[in-house]
Prior knowledge:
Blueprint: E1 4-7, E2 10-12, E3 18-24, E4 34-39, E5 46-51, E6 58-60, E7 68-73, E8 78-83, E9 92-98, E10 101-102, E11 106-110
Parallel strand pairs: 2-11
Antiparallel strand pairs: 1-3, 3-8, 4-5, 4-9, 5-6, 7-8, 9-10, 9-11
Amino acid sequence: QVQLVESGGGLVQPGGSLRLSCAASEFSFSYYGMSWYRQAPGKERELVARITSTGSSTNYADSVKGRFTISRDNAKKMVYLEMNSLKPEDTAVYYCKGGGSWGQGTQVTVSS
């Protein structure tokens, strides 16, 4: 089973940037499409972005299009989420998903 570990969350001011990372333990990582989800307090978990196994195609939630970028490095078994122009409504726990597994999540708080 794939094990996923997220990092890079934290407190940032509105308009700021963060880069989330997700490290995968599975040697066949390059076969899996990967996704980032987020869950804000009192809300359902929602898809933020996803990327195909080769990285050739990506999709984004409308709320983050133009601000967030998902990418991956199959040699390092890593997937990233670059987040720019952050807004208070981006505050949530962000989860990495892939290979049938979820990471433990990393908190992102956007506040002045």
